[in-house]
């Protein structure tokens, strides 16, 4: 029996075709521009690529960024995309089609890859680089293992900066808003010579603390930040050679994630009476610092019937973040706060090198192909620190681990135009991925339960390991681990042109995420999680109709993840962070992307995603929370059985809408109103289900009212973000009390932008 989603798609297709054929008698001026994407590592029309893709660019990016928020403002702005963080602006976690990773460790990986200017940003801290002077954001849904590599089984989020040109151009933007918010951007570029051009762009954002601390901690106010970033690019354009050289840097000084203790009413996910998002009571320190930088060289040679490309990238990050995890201010060791917890995490040393070589054919015939080599090398330390909040936040524990990750891959893809209407594509990739983890230092004198009784003396084991290293003897395997994954991935697709404006496609693809290692520690046992693999099926339609005044892209999908890596956080038994594999998880759903000029002056976009996920492992159980009301059954050991649960942070529904109406005035001026709305349904914060840690549905809206003149070169606008001021918990901490963190409250401001 056919899946009902595929039946729905089949029923939709004829109406799309008829709408396309039923052209209007007189062509209107306002039409949709073609969208160019690089989802297949070459420039193509988005309508011709057999992948579910959405893009964000232009005025929509400007409007979403008005409030000075970080990359999380993209959450829900395209179908099936969710982004959240327990580190604030520093560590975004991406989910596509409900498939992501809630792990907060700094040596973790994610199944959604982020690629910035063709360079993968592997460490989760690197994924938070600000969005400014960006030409377009592409969200590729489904496995991208053939052309983009490992750690892409859920998809890819791709950012492309504005390139230098020979034409002198740029922009300046300044915005001011609530809580003394400043949001300043600028870019300038142009020719340096007949062959060379350059572009420099910069960002500065700051906001005062808007949360008052009524507790005894060292922070009087919280949630403020000061962030800056800069990018410089040089472009050389020869007769048969092009070189694009870039460098970038980021600095962040501000508040770490603000945890709010006991904010949920026992037995429900309602906030406690009197909850005030503008106040908190904590006694520990809250602070976050981050510096990152990088450089890349993208070279290409035109060899006639072939094109050779080289992409070299280097990234480094230095970060430290400390927070009051229990989210409260004394008294301690009560029913409300069983124990105090103040911890910090940091990366004091980090380097990432990537190198890709790719050869692409440029044939006029029916067959074209590309093939390449990829190399990845990462080496970094991670620090974990604990403090005794009851003793003036004196440090009482420390651990430093080192993780290295070396990977290489060979890949290829081919496109074959079988007939005038049928195009076939296929891709393959073979990857070798190796990780090594070692504990370099450890001590703990504070409240530190031992997870494995036989391995309580980690400091003693470390001393023995160091002595063994010196003597050339074998070391205790409990303090080190190595993995080596060898995986073959592939994809195959077919696109059929119903007519010049309507394509239908089908795609089958695989992907994998490499093994993960969790080090031994006071609250953790050493764990190695096997690699997870995914098999995905997708079908869709891409249609332009109504004389190019409207565009509809729709897809249905089903995926199965084998050995999915999951993280059980906290819980009432030992408060350990546990890394584990689920036997299987599945996801199915659909996405819709619609854009239409309803009139010449009214452009509306609608996006919708339905994602049903389910863990399938009858024997898998995790520790439940210490204080919440768990609704799943228990096993014989008092742990929670999670078979049948949805994946965490995986809303079933995501919707987004924008509308822009303009009133043309004299001399190229216009008055306009732009509004954007995003909705996500409720989510589980953790692997188990509970009444308190189920996030309520969230609806946020934005409004922008502005005036443009000189054919759009100048723009002044009033804006609002989260204009209904809907406050919801977006995550929680479950090992101590009913702690949660929330979304951003309402913000108003004014902004001016000048293009030249």
Automatic annotation (TrEMBL):
Residues 278-723 form the TonB-dependent receptor-like beta-barrel domain. One of its GO terms (biological process) is iron ion transport. Keywords: Cell outer membrane, Ion transport, Iron, Iron transport, Membrane, Receptor, Signal, TonB box, Transmembrane, Transmembrane beta strand, Transport. The keyword Transmembrane applies. It comes from the Bacteria. Its main location: membrane. It is a multi-pass membrane protein. Gene3D superfamilies: TonB-dependent receptor, beta-barrel domain. Residues 46-156 form the TonB-dependent receptor plug domain. It is found in: Cell outer membrane. One of its GO terms (cellular component) is cell outer membrane. The keyword Thylakoid does not apply. Pfam families: Plug, TonB_dep_Rec_b-barrel. InterPro entries: Beta-barrel_TonB (IPR000531), Beta-barrel_TonB_sf (IPR036942), Plug_dom (IPR012910), TonB-dep_rcpt-like (IPR039426). Residues 1-19 form the signal peptide. Belongs to the TonB-dependent receptor family. This is TonB-dependent receptor.
